[in-house]
User: Fold these one by one.
Assistant:
Number 1:
Amino acid sequence: MKEKQENNAGSGGAIAAKSTVGWLLDFASPHRRGYIASVIFATLGVACGMAPYFCVARMVIALIQGVREIPFYAAWCLWAAGFWVIRYLCHGVSTTLSHKATFAVISEVRLRLTKKLTRLPMGFLLDTPSGKLKNVLVERADSIETALAHVVPEMSGNVLVSLATIIYLFALDWRMALAALITLPLGFLCYMAMMSGYEGRFMNYVAKNKQLNATAVEYINGIEVIKIFNQSAGSYDKFTRAAKEAANSAIDWMRSTQTYFSLAMSVFPAVLVGILPIGCLLYMAGSLSIETFIMAIILSLGVVGPLITTMSYSDDMGKIAAIVAEITEILEAPDLERPAGEAALLGCGIILQDVSFAYKEETVLNKVSLDIPEGSVTALVGPSGGGKSTLAKLIASLWDTNEGTITIGGTDIRNIPLRQLNDTVAYVTQDTYLFDETIRENIRMGRAGATDAQVEEAAKASGCHDFIMALENGYETRTGSGGGHLSGGEKQRISIARAMLKNAPIVILDEATAYTDPENEAVIQAAVSRLVAGRTLIVIAHRLSTVSDSDKIVVIDKGQVAAQGTHGELLEQSPLYLRMWRAHIAAKDTKDITAEVKA
Ligand SMILES: Nc1ncnc2c1ncn2[C@@H]1O[C@H](COP(=O)(O)OP(=O)(O)OP(=O)(O)O)[C@@H](O)[C@H]1O
């Protein structure tokens, strides 16, 4: 089953090791008709832009030849005006077509990126600042627009017409054509000098901007802490430093290319530098007719525009490789490897065998073995930092174990397709994220397609219906970014409602009642009992009294199973558990006394 990796299909893996052009073609090919039509119209447009020069040449030659018929000149003027109008019409059609196709491509790139994020190991996501990810998803994806919507049609159109004009010049008089190209080698040298090290300098500019983005996001996300701890000066300094570095990198990059770019821009299109002196010499020697001379001068003046346009896009060609590299860095990052299809699970019992894990170098879990029978309630308790949440995350498949295996229903979780595993396990944490959506939609995330009645039923069962109805807009109230408009306890209950709606056979509650007051704790405990009836439940709790009647309590200490058994057994057998229980009871008593005194 493993050979067929669902995760890479049609995304990162499919485009691995492709060149920038190959990558762009991969994304653009579904819209190739649009691009081909856009190139055709762009070429027609540029050709129509050249045609008036031809008309002018015909008129000048006729004047020299002594033609005196006004209708003759009027006709050529009309042709010239007509071509000029058609030029802009073609340009408009070409731009519309290329933008239509390009925005579809950009949206596809963003979709693939966002889908990819759901398949990446948490390690990759945590190590990447959110500002950088946002930068790639929004700004970088947008930058493809110049390459595809402008460079593809306009550059190809201008190159084609320049080539056609030069071929025509060769047909007219090969010496004039060569004279027109005399500046080409020098212009090419300037161009090569501009492009040498271009990608590196641009990448430096990109890296500094990513840093600026990451700092800006950090500054905004941490604004509460910055205010409370009066850190505004330091944090602001960090931000201004990042802003200055970003600005300097842009100036360095511009400075290093601008001289060569300006030289190339002035040398490349300087066709008259060769044509005028050589043409004069040939004309005076009698080997060049005045008609051919005039036609060569005027056409070569006409070709200057397309050449300059071509040159101006060379800069964008240099950038695109760097932009594609940034996008592919995410698309090609290795997925959490999971197979496709459906795995046959024999129930929902969980077995961990010799599981070891480290986020980085330091071992967090060391040869943990555990049996969690189907339909049982297992509590994970132990000192802070012992590895309880890490264990839960490994079962929820947010990370892969380094050693050992975790099986659900007898199947290694690495052999369970991600979608199936997500349907099987509901993981509720104390800081479950709420999207800036209505409360109804936030609960509905538990099961796409659930009816309003089902959403409300889950809300009632998790004890949040009453507080939701007390809000001005009830279920249609927006929760604010990250659930910022709600209290910690309210957010928690909504996340429990979400898990209820998901109806998964395995439920992991990671400190899910941490924010609740005693009154609500009872409501949540009742909700949790309904949520977990007949399911396999793993609950992580610091308040031991909330888990004392679990089927099994596992004490995790320093990444190992220190003891396991029922509450009664552990009180007898585990000195660590006994200490924790006594400390909990003492703290509880103090709280109760304080509450009584306050009352
Ligand atoms: N994303 C991470 N990257 C690196 N180290 C981490 C990460 N998450 C947790 N750790 C470390 O792993 C160890 C175990 O953390 P874990 O959250 O599993 O403990 P815990 O027993 O759940 O603690 P608590 O009861 O305080 O929630 C800690 O030393 C913690 O610092």
Number 2:
Amino acid sequence: MIEKDAKRAIALGYFDGVHRGHQALMELAVKRAKENGAISSVFTFDAHPDTVITGQRVPLIVSESRRGEEIRERGGVDEVIFAHFNDEMRNMEWQKFVDDVLVGQFHACWIITGENNHFGYRGQGNPERLKAECERLGIGCDIVKNVSIDGVVVSSTYIRQQIAMSNMEQAAKFLGHPYALTGVVQHGRQVGRTIGYRTVNLELPPEMQAPPFGVYVSRVVANKEAHIAVTNIGVHPTFGLGDKACVEPHILDFDGDLYGKLIEVELLHFLRPEQQFSDTEQLKRAIAQDIAQTRAYFAQEHK
Ligand SMILES: Cc1cc2nc3c(=O)[nH]c(=O)nc-3n(C[C@H](O)[C@H](O)[C@H](O)COP(=O)(O)O)c2cc1C
Ligand SMILES: Nc1ncnc2c1ncn2[C@@H]1O[C@H](COP(=O)(O)OP(=O)(O)OP(=O)(O)O)[C@@H](O)[C@H]1O
């Protein structure tokens, strides 16, 4: 149980996807917390500020239901504070946010932010102002230099663009881990077994930045075990059964029952777009080829 008035080392930002820049900030938050006998925290919002401000939905790398867990697991922080991004928060002056919220309400003894972070009303809070305010308040402050890879600054925006172009390898390089979809296995329409390839069915959360419909070399993690899989994302037009997008991994050489289990589907490599085949025989041939390519991908990886 975390005490309400415990001291905190707080990392600031939205943290969608928990990429390599975010990881640097959180490592520092954990270190500062240890040095100061404090709790390591991430302060974020329940909705993406840009979605609220512009009215245009920012598609997420990690689904809303997984965000807290993802930040804690990947960042190793003790807690994630989800503040409600309402009008009061949106219109709050940056200094009031630091003084009243971070220090007053959450007892920040150290604040950690990236050099590109802006916060408070109209984004008027910036690292220089934060540094000066922390000095005035007598608390610690770290401004983390941008983490870049191959000359490109790591950001959630860049990673979303890579996912949208089905460039899964590049997304993984910047995230520091594969892009993954998580969900509870649902009952499908049982068509899979009639075509000879059983699939595990997951819904595609609507708020996600999903990759384009198509077939992906994958790894499925279920019951703490990783399995080789090949995943179709889309509406399976060959069967013309509506337009609700599904994530459907076929786990290779697997005959278990995963209904109702929480699984993670890592999408590692794009193979081909989803297609409307004129009959199921053609679809079966395409799937056999997808499976062969998947085996070749892993064989190459383990050489
Ligand atoms: C590797 C793989 C690739 C697939 N590719 C397509 C495709 O291109 N077009 C299509 O209509 N269905 C495709 N499917 C079929 C559907 O994703 C799904 O498996 C099928 O509709 C059975 O659905 P069910 O599990 O709900 O019964 C593919 C399935 C797999 C496993
Ligand atoms: N490449 C990076 N290196 C260091 N710090 C970073 C990097 N990217 C983001 N940060 C910092 O991590 C915190 C959380 O970042 P946030 O998720 O708000 O931004 P982002 O990843 O740049 O996303 P977006 O692309 O939507 O702006 C912020 O303090 C931000 O400055």
